[in-house]
Design a protein that fits this description.
Layout lengths: L1 H21 L12 E6 L2 E6 L25 H207 L5 H6 L6 E6 L6 E7 L7 E7 L10 H6 L1 E2 L5 E2 L2 H9 L3 E9 L4 E11 L8 E8 L28 H4 L12 E2 L18 E2 H4 L5 E10 L3
Antiparallel strand pairs: 1-2, 3-4, 4-5, 5-7, 5-13, 6-7, 8-9, 8-13, 9-10, 11-12
Keywords: Angiogenesis, Coiled coil, Disulfide bond, Glycoprotein, Signal
GO cellular component, one term: extracellular space
Pfam family, one: ANG-1
Length: 498
């Protein structure tokens, strides 16, 4: 398209040049001659040629139709010679002009061809550069679009990863909840199996007792018949002997009253020193009782510090020098330790058997002095061990009876199984542990649960015949493991300066 434009421009320039040259051949009278146009390829050439109409005869001659005369006149012959001479001159001039024009056209064509070639190369180079620029622009645009797409893909991938992470966290949370539910279901299954077995045992015992009662009933009926016969005979004999023994009965009743009075007097004399000692002395712990001279283990009355309120506690006067105030003891499973916060606060059970002394009393006495804690353990095989803590005290109820212990030693494991210092007390109705699973309900009992932890001496009391996993049983992990049940546990305290 560029080459055609250059050719057309060149042709127009040549045409204008020819017209300019031809303008010199105007008539004498100044009238314009008719132009002649020649088409050569895409170019057209325009020039002026002399014409007959531009040659006018002299006024002396009047030629109306010279071409139709048979013989021209002398004047016409003279005019024709002159006309011929003019035509020859014009033809020579035109021939010279055409030669010059041809030379000019050839020079212009050479110049134009060189320019056309140079312009073609430049135009091709420019076109190639323009095409390259367009390609670079398109490449940059495609690169930008690909970058945008890649950014969107990365953003979408990041969002998907975040969603996947959130889904994974939700799945882990659901798995933990499912595990907790599974554990609770397992506990319920265990309790259900235990209750079913107990019901079956009771049913068997009831059936056996019923059979025994029936047999005893038959025997009793036989005995009643025999007794009735004997009573009849005895009544007869009694009627005879009544008359003879009236005096003996009076003497016997008199002797009986005398004996009862003597027995009552002896019992009062035996209990008098003990009652007087306990009524006159006020003891806050078993160490004071031991120092007062009462060195036999047993149940004693203790007083709250700075208060008239009392509580019964068992005093161990034999273990490691005695003077121990027992505030937890288990030996046969006769007492349910899955109790409420209030029950653990005030205490429950029988001090002569299984019992919990009470968190409030333990807090009161440990708040007014330095105490040592000893935990005595025995398994079903008869093995014994202990854990000793040099310093022990509890926080107030407002502090959830927070545990404070330090200075561990003993034989119940190289590492202490007790909860760490600063752990709050939890029960089935008051959850203060650091686990979302409520350890007091899962592991049962009231204890210082951190995140369920390695110990719980207030769990369910399982007998030695139980073979199932005892997650909620009595445990002291670093001595017997997480599921090995214990037979006897005792928690007791005494002053560090005893």
């Amino acid at each position: 398209m560029v080459l055609s434009y250059l050719k057309l421009t060149r042709c127009v320039a040549v045409t204008l040049a020819l017209v300019g040259v031809g303008s010199r051949f105007r008539g004498v009278d100044g009238s314009d001659r008719r132009p002649h146009r020649i088409q050569h390829g895409p170019c057209s050439y325009t020039f002026l040629l002399p014409e007959v109409e531009s040659c006018h005869p002299s006024p002396a001659f009047e030629v109306t139709n010279s071409l139709q005369r048979d013989t021209p006149s002398s004047v016409e012959h003279h005019w024709n010679n002159k006309r011929l001479q003019q035509l020859q001159n014009v033809l020579e001039n035109n021939t010279q002009w055409l030669l010059k024009l041809e030379s000019y056209i050839q020079d212009n064509v050479k110049i134009e061809m060189a320019e056309i070639q140079r312009n073609a190369v430049q135009n091709q180079t420019a076109a190639m550069l323009e095409m390259g620029t367009n390609l670079l622009t398109q490449t940059a645009e495609q690169t930008r679009k690909l970058t945008d797409v890649e950014t969107q893909v990365l953003n979408q991938t990041s969002r998907l990863e975040i969603q996947l992470l959130e889904t994974s966290l939700s799945t882990n949370k659901l798995e933990k909840q499912l595990m907790v539910q599974t554990q609770e279901i397992g506990k319920l299954h265990e309790k259900n199996s235990f209750l079913e077995q107990k019901v079956l045992d009771l049913a068997g015992k009831h059936e056996t007792e019923l059979q025994e009662i029936k047999a005893e009933k038959l025997e009793m009926q036989k005995l009643v018949v025999r007794q009735s016969e004997i009573i009849g005979e005895l009544e007869k004999q009694l009627t005879v002997a009544t008359l003879n023994s009236s005096m003996l009965q009076k003497e016997q009743s008199s002797l009986t009253e005398t004996v009862q009075q003597l027995i009552s007097l002896v019992s009062q004399l035996n209990e008098l020193p003990k009652v007087q000692n306990e009524e006159l002395a006020i003891f806050k712990d078993c160490a004071e009782i031991y120092k007062s001279g009462l060195t036999a283990s047993g149940v004693h009355i203790l007083h709250f510090p700075n208060s008239s309120q009392t509580v019964k506690a068992f005093c161990d006067m034999e273990t490691s020098g005695g003077g121990w105030t027992v505030f937890q003891h288990r030996k046969d499973g006769s007492i349910d330790f899955h109790r409420t916060w209030k029950e653990y606060k005030t205490g429950f059970g029988d001090p002569a058997g299984e019992y919990w002394l009470g968190n409030e009393f333990t807090y009161q006495i440990t708040a007014h002095g330095m105490y040592t804690l000893r935990i005595q353990l025995r398994d079903w095989e008869g093995n014994e061990a202990y854990s000793l803590y040099d310093h022990f005290h509890l926080g107030s109820e407002e502090q959830n009876y927070r545990l404070h212990v330090r200075g561990y030693s003993g034989t119940a494991g190289r590492t202490s199984s007790f909860s760490s210092s600063g752990t709050d007390f939890s029960t089935k109705d008051v959850d203060n542990d650091k686990c979302g699973c409520k350890c007091a309900q899962m592991a049962t009992g009231g204890w210082w649960f951190d995140a369920c932890g390695p110990s719980n001496l207030n769990g369910i009391y399982y007998s030695s015949s139980t073979t199932t996993m005892k997650f909620n049983g009595i445990k002291w992990h670093y001595w017997k493991g997480p599921s090995h049940g214990l037979k006897v546990t005792t928690m007791m305290i005494r002053p560090t300066d005893f």
